[in-house]
Amino acid sequence: MEQLIEKLINAFGPSSKEEAVKELIKSELEQKVDEIREDKFGNLVAHVEGSGEKLLVAAHMDSIGVIVTDIDKNGFLRIGEIGGLRKSFLVGQRILFENGIEGFVYYEDKESNWEVKDQKIEKFFVDIGAYSKAKAKELVQIGTEGIYKPNFYKSDRRIIAPSLDDRIGCAVAIQTIKNLKKKKIKYNTYFVFTVQEEVGVKGSRTSSYEIYPDIGISLDVTDAGDTPETYPVSLNLGEGPTIKVMDGGMISSKYVRDELIKVAKKENIPYQLEVISKGTTDAYAMQTTKAGVLSGSISISTRYIHTGGEVADLGDVENAVNLLKNFIEK
Length: 330
Ligand code: CO
Ligand code: ZN
Known about the structure:
Strand order of the largest sheet: 1-2-12-3-13-16-14-15
Number of helices: 8
CATH topology of the largest domain: Aminopeptidase
CATH superfamily of the largest domain: Zn peptidases
Oligomer: single chain
CATH architecture of the largest domain: 3-Layer(aba) Sandwich
Helix content: 25-40%
Radius of gyration: 20 Å
Bound molecules: cobalt (II) ion, zinc ion
Structural class: alpha+beta
Number of strands: 17
Distance between the termini: 24 Å
Strand content: 25-35%
Shape: globular
């Protein structure tokens, strides 16, 4: 499991540039599913046939990132945001651009007080070690995308890495597919590895329209509330995957929530009920597709989401796989 997560973390894939992640997932699943295809919008759809209701399980392939907006006369890059960056943590980050170029983020510090007072994205720049504008232009272009440089670390139970959002959800989906027992599959299940979640749940919007499932579940990260003196969120690392009740975008469908709780109780899988006030997932788009889809979410509580060092618990990941597997099987 951890090797799988590490491989996924190391794959380059900010929103709209998910190809490397897609290729990796394809190679993991080709022999394990009834059909695997790419849709028009770029989502990867892996079909596991079952005789029952249609189920869509979504995990997003894309991560947050930066995009080059301008190259100045000395070769410094100005950047825009791909998704919601936490700009107070941007200075000091190493950036990896799509063609292997690396850079370091700094900011306009007129008073030399080492303090990021103005967090407008326009105030930051990336130093790629280019000694002139011409040299920088050989390395990157306007529109080149970058990510927090992959950097995977595992203690005995926990992982620290950028892009756990949402490669950890991709890992849960992949591992669930590998663990499913063909004869026991209940739902006719479409695993969709979506694109462009971080810029407005777009891949989920198009894929849920095409597939139009009876039930939709997203796999994603959610905020943990177990760090010192933090905003109170009733979720802790290591206490089980979360079953979403509500987030910043949706109230999950009671049916899905209750079914997941039923399975967790029956199989003795630890779980936490999730209510968070900010952020949402692919399930937000599914829920209001066409005449509506019964939608919910299984999440992994994660610290410091959208920074270069997200922290999650491997036990929660394994229990999420277990919960989803038992949900899909009879
Ligand atoms: Co995110
Ligand atoms: Zn996410």
